[in-house]
Amino acid sequence: MTPVQQQRYLRHTLLAQVGEEGQERLLRSSALIIGCGGLGSPAALYLAAAGVGRIGLVDPDHVDQSNLQRQILFKEEQVGTAKTEAAAERLQSLNPDLVIEQHQVRFSVNNAMEVAKDYDLIVDGSDNFPTRYLTNDCAFFLKKPLIYGSIFQFDGQVTVFNPTQEGPCYRCLLPDAPAADAVPNCAEAGVLGALPGIVGSLQAMEALKVLLKIGESPLGKLICYDALRSDFRNIKLRRNPKCILCGDQPTLTQLRYEGHSCPANSPYQDMMPNDFRDLLAQGWQGLLLDVRTPAEREAYAIEGSYFLPLQELPERFHEIPRDKPIVIYCKAGIRSANACHFLAEQGFNDLTNLTGGIDAW
Question: pLDDT tens across 79-92, in order?
Fold first, then answer.
């Protein structure tokens, strides 16, 4: 380490479990952060401050006004800027020694292995189930530790999945993906801004322990935080011998997208973004309906879409033509699924929900 680095990391090197050798290990290490949102923000800041030498940032989105309540990487003047670009600027100003690599793409089946292959571990800061399954599977196939975190309103969860050690994977915890409209994300359900700060910081702590090879990781243990009750508790996780990924007779041997299919009696159908692009290319003549908020619409919208916020739908649904097929989208596919249900109750019968919303688009 240089004299400047010795001074910067002095509080680390004073620790017997870290020392100069451990700090040098951090400077040589790398971490990939999936999502620069509520969880990725504190995780990235603490890993950068700790001196993790190379940090990769994966996020296709741009900074929105509504992000600033919890995504502490960003500033007011960065609204409209690509999140990876704004995050890289902040992290580089915090610690100029680091290499910050931007991946302004959606983490997908097509790019996940290539993006993640050269990092020591993966931090999952995603906010949707398809990406969580994909991140888990990618980490398993690449044999890399995965630092998992999730939040919902006032509750948070953290654990570590490590395919090189005995223990479960995310599919052991949740074998089947929930339906598209079963569990809302922050955009639909809300979240108190400090909660992702706590959970993201816990993820950073677990990542540093893995990189330093100190302490005990919560392998086979889900750390649950209830903010309203100020309560931490641990739930034991066990490897599922029937898990399709890490079980005794695995059947999942390559990455796949865990899309959500509608039940047979559903009043609408789901459609993947790529399938809808193909439909548009064929001259589709339906109505593309955007049910997000005005702020979300202003930040980005799919060209040619008709805007009608979900909260105004009960009073304004008569504006929607009944003689055209309708494809509805929101941010992640949950509000649009609710809009499909509502319109079906009003007698509309050619309804499609854009799976994954504009995030997947």
Answer: 999 999 999 999 99
- 289: burial class by Cβ within 10 Å (0-12, 13-18, 19+)? buried
When the pLDDT of each residue in the chain is averaged and rounded to a whole number, the result is: 91
Tell me the mean pLDDT in the region 15-32. Answer: 97
Q: CA dist 101 to 137, 197, 201, 213, 285, Å?
A: 22, 22, 21, 24, 41
Domains in the chain, please, with CATH? 3-236 (3.40.50.720), 269-360 (3.40.250.10)
**What CA–CA distances, in Å, run from 119 to 31, 57, 143, 254, 332?**
5, 11, 11, 20, 28
Tell me the whole-structure pTM to 2 decimals: 0.78
296 Cβ partners below 8 Å, 6+ apart?
64, 66, 187, 331, 358
Distance from C-alpha of 25 to C-alpha of 5, rounded to nearest angstrom: 13
Mark 65-87 as b/e (b = at least 16 C-beta within 10 Å). Answer: eebbebbbbbeeebbeebbbbbb
Higher pLDDT, 101 or 188: 101
Q: How far apart are CA 227 and CA 300, in angstroms?
A: 33
Distance CA 44, CA 84 (A): 11
pLDDT tens digits, residue range 173-220? 998 877 544 566 666 667 888 999 999 999 999 999 999 999 999 999
